Amino acid sequence: MRIALTGGATGIGASVLRKLAGQGHEVVVFDIAEPADHAQSWICTDISNPDAIDAALAQVEGRFDGLVNNAGLPPRDGLEEAILRVNFLGLRRFLDGMVGRLSDGASVVNVASRAGAAWRDSVDEIKGLMACDHATVAAFVAERGIDPVRAYNLSKEAVIALTLARTEAMVARGLRINSVSPAAVSTGILDDFTAAFGEKVARNIARAGRAGEADEVADVILFLLSPQSHWIKGQDIVIDGGMTAMAMSDALGFGDPA
Amino acid sequence: MRIALTGGATGIGASVLRKLAGQGHEVVVFDIAEPADHAQSWICTDISNPDAIDAALAQVEGRFDGLVNNAGLPPRDGLEEAILRVNFLGLRRFLDGMVGRLSDGASVVNVASRAGAAWRDSVDEIKGLMACDHATVAAFVAERGIDPVRAYNLSKEAVIALTLARTEAMVARGLRINSVSPAAVSTGILDDFTAAFGEKVARNIARAGRAGEADEVADVILFLLSPQSHWIKGQDIVIDGGMTAMAMSDALGFGDPA
């Protein structure tokens, strides 16, 4: 397969790159940083900038069998606008630019997050973000007083919602789209999440027994790129070692420990 | 791997059996009907009867690397009690009997259904069913006036809830449990669903382009049995060609067709 991957230099993206390359697939990486290894092709791309995205896409020829929209910024002070520009607006711009370059049957995988799990409670704000573009998002952030943690959560909520919103158009083109929602993954940005979400992260990790690994998320992304998953469309797959299920079971009082 | 499979004679179970056997795995099938092919071992088992389940389990020796709880009855007149006995109570009894026979790291996959998707709206009734056993379920059905369609939906809601409820205990034992929710699959019982759910089934199939295939569901079950999915725990994976995502996007007004 020939796969386009955003954010392939570090973390989950680097693991996806290594695994795809290891299976003999061709990967074109779009990242502002150069991948350490394994990339057959790297196109330096600032995903926060729509013109940079368009310019990067203009450099590639031929068709792709899959797209992994993985580039993202963590919740960190001062990044609120940049988070929305990269994690959602940039992702959408890149997706829109790639659709016409995807082969029949191609699979798109968006990297969301368990931080976006409560998206059903924020449908109006998600629609507000969906109505923004790179030119108007600064005003959106200012008006709503969005801080970096909210920006991160909202960006991932909107990725899950965009996956739903685009399913029908993708199916009509013979393509498919899904997302994955990892939680508490042991990468270079885990400290950002611990700082942003506090005790909750440590508690979830303790309950699952450990943090997740980037390779464990990458394995699921590879499955979603493969023909074995081809009837899964418009879904969000949570990869969290059971953290969500345990919390939901508690909250709902399913006291059936066996 | 050595896998235990309930309901391996027809439909999705027959496909799981064929695929596992084709990959060189050993499969022990527990079904009231004899599988046509591919079974190294068949133990005639009436999953509606707790004594029959216990007797069947007493016949097997050794450990298993996975369990697929697939046996189920469709919504059909007169079957309301039998549906709850097989699809939920029998599944739970079989699971409880198998837990001590599973190897470290083993994976359990419960076959739920998109018919159970609205489980959050029925938490009290699910808890009512969870409090039943085979001896008391007839009274539960009579008291609540449960018809075959409601019995089917409730049984699948309870399978999704049970998957959540058991996640922590399974993780504590070094095991994991997930469910799959297929919709409108082209098997021998698709007519039962069309009769039970009417126009909705035909509309969903038209929108997805076609009904699903048993092999497409089996591919996801095999993924959930494999090490590649090992950080996915307590999740329900919907396999429906996008039917759910399209309906949700409509309902929420995510008008972003691109």
UniProtKB/TrEMBL annotation, chains A, B:
Cited Pfam families: adh_short_C2
Top-level taxon of origin: Bacteria
Coiled-coil boundaries: none
InterPro entries in alphabetical order: NAD(P)-bd_dom_sf, SDR_fam
SUPFAM superfamilies: NAD(P)-binding Rossmann-fold domains
PANTHER family: EG:BACR7A4.14 PROTEIN-RELATED, ZGC:101858
Protein name: 3-ketoacyl-ACP reductase
Protein's organism: Pseudaestuariivita atlantica
